[in-house]
Design goal:
binds NADPH dihydro-nicotinamide-adenine-dinucleotide phosphate, about 15% strand, single chain, globular, seven-stranded parallel beta sheet
Length: about 240
């Protein structure tokens, strides 16, 4: 049997990460589902992965913990010779107007998004470069582009993803590794549970929220050979909001 092509999805157990994991499974990847604490959701996702593709496994760790991330991901490339895809999807929001935002809320959001990007990309990049094959897709947000009120921490973190994506893309463009990000608008997951959705829908030209599968399809495209000349890009998936 040939070596499986492996895709790692951080925060892959639920929400957007679940839809992305399933999309990559149906494209033939062995999907490695990272999560932090919601084991039950991750196990349910793994069952679905097994019924939609070659299979996968769970790899729980906290993306903010550099030592944990490095040791788990190095372990993975010790076992698999073709880790081809990394989706940096794990993310959190801790919304507050800036005047009331605590240092802890600022730090927690930046750590998860930006340290998460660094901690997970670093151990896999050398492997992808030496294989001359890899696609890294990270989750930015419309918030990075418009600067949503009450989201200075989140907007800063997600804008940082765009900068890091463009810089890394230009460093590895000649080495067979593509680096892109996706900027979703408002997508139906637990993350948006506290938002005033009927007001928000009025601001979306399509008049509805996005579905996780509509983001996952774009991620799948970016990971595929159909996107072989696409790197350093930010693809918006937002129902026409910008
Ligand atoms: P959810 O809150 O539904 O899921 C977040 C996922 O991230 C969970 O799987 C969670 O793990 C994981 N996670 C959080 N912190 C860590 C950590 N420190 N280490 C490992 N995993 C972690 O979010 P969404 O699915 O809505 O969002 C996914 C991504 O898309 C995020 O980066 C988000 O910012 C971005 N996004 C979402 C939008 C939306 O409208 N939903 C819009 C724009 C961007 P666990 O299950 O263990 O808790």
């Amino acid at each position: 049997m040939s070596e499986p092509r492996v895709a790692v999805v951080t925060g892959g157990g639920r929400g957007l990460g679940k839809a992305i994991s399933l999309a990559l499974a149906s494209s033939g990847y062995w999907v490695v589902v990272n999560y932090k604490s919601n084991q039950e959701a991750a196990e349910q996702t793994l069952e679905l992965i097994r019924s939609s593709g070659p299979g996968g496994e769970l790899l729980p760790f906290d993306v903010t913990d550099a030592r944990e991330a490095t040791s788990h991901l190095k372990g993975l490339i010790g076992r698999f010779s073709r880790v081809e895809v990394l989706v940096n999807n794990a993310g959190i929001a801790a919304d507050s107007v800036f005047g009331l935002m605590s240092a802890e809320e600022w730090r927690r959001v930046l750590d998860t998004t930006l340290d998460g990007f660094f901690n997970c990309t670093k151990p896999l990049l050398t492997h992808m470069v030496s294989n001359r094959r890899g696609s890294i897709v990270s989750m930015s947000s419309i918030s990075a582009l418009v600067g949503n009120r009450g989201q200075a921490n989140y907007a800063a973190a997600k804008a940082g993803i765009i900068g890091a994506t463009r810089a890394l893309a230009s460093e590895v463009a000649r080495l067979g590794v593509r680096v892109n990000c996706v900027a979703p608008g408002v997508i139906e997951t637990e993350m948006i549970g506290d938002l005033p959705l009927s007001e928000i829908k009025k601001m979306i030209p399509m008049g509805r929220l996005g579905k996780p599968e509509e983001v996952a399809g774009v991620v799948r495209f970016l990971c595929s050979d159909d996107a072989s000349y696409v790197t350093g890009q930010v693809i918006s998936v937002n129902g026409g909001m910008l």
